[in-house]
UniProtKB/TrEMBL annotation:
It comes from Tilletiaria anomala (strain ATCC 24038 / CBS 436.72 / UBC 951). It comes from the Eukaryota. One of its GO terms (biological process) is cellular response to oxidative stress. One of its GO terms (molecular function) is oxidoreductase activity. Residues 11-181 form the Nitroreductase domain. It holds the Pfam family Nitroreductase. PANTHER family: FATTY ACID REPRESSION MUTANT PROTEIN 2-RELATED. This is Nitroreductase.
Length: 204
């Protein structure tokens, strides 16, 4: 990259777009590159490479959102999610992010001075992969939103979720990134706190 401008333009343009259709922007083969590259090249503590993903397209994507009834959510949370489930089903695909607990546990044992930090580092590594993919897909023209339906749904939901998706043992679900052809008419204008509250410069 010659300058950071193209990257910053992508960072600034990224939004949460909840209403999308399944009109294709990238075909299945073309989609694999941004998904695999962003996850592969995103950093992880000690290069532990703990992030994993399942890419749902076509029927697998539709089934996920049409048939998975979230359990163990509070009443308000459930209502909010249920309103949005048809929007998610209407989109082109979902990337479900996981962290491989076996990898994290190995590293936790190996670097004992940091052992209490590994769960945080695992979450952070996953978040870095998520934001890189989110930004990359929106740069391709997709509308994208980040969901935590499975991770929020609690223990009762997990066996059903793991069996339906054949999730390898030890993969812990983190988040779902839903993407499609943007079809949102009422995107809220985003507000920002003052930069002076956000950071300061110390050049001394
Ligand atoms: C850690 C994290 C968790 C989030 N979880 C959800 C979620 O479960 N559902 C959702 O619709 N948006 C979720 N979001 C998106 C935020 O609500 C959104 O990024 C924020 O309101 C700013 O709007 P923007 O994405 O349009 O810039 C999450 C964002 C972050 C960083």
């Amino acid at each position: 990259m010659a300058t950071s401008q193209a990257f910053l333009d992508g960072v600034k343009a990224r939004r949460s777009i909840h209403q999308n259709t399944d009109k294709e922007i990238l075909g299945q083969d073309e989609l694999i590159t941004p998904v695999s590259d962003t996850i592969k090249y995103s950093p992880s503590a000690f290069n532990s490479q703990s992030s994993r993903a399942i890419i749902l397209l076509g029927k697998a994507h539709k089934n996920y959102w049409n048939e998975f009834v979230p359990q163990n959510l509070g009443e308000n949370q459930l209502k909010a999610v249920q309103k949005r489930l048809p929007w998610f089903a209407a989109a082109q695909g979902t990337v479900i992010f996981f962290e491989d607990k076996k990898v994290i546990d190995e590293y936790r044992g190996g670097a004992s001075a940091f052992s209490h930090l590994w769960d945080d580092w695992s979450n952070q590594a996953s978040g870095m992969a998520q934001i890189n993919l989110w930004t990359a897909l929106e740069a391709e023209g997709y509308g994208v939103n980040l969901q935590h339906v499975a991770p929020m749904a609690g223990e009762g939901f997990k066996p059903m979720f793991n069996a339906a998706l054949k999730v390898p043992s030890g993969w812990i679900v983190q988040a779902e990134l839903v993407f499609g052809y943007p079809d949102q008419k009422d995107l809220k204008v985003k507000t920002f706190i003052e930069d002076s509250e956000r950071f300061r410069v110390d050049g001394a």
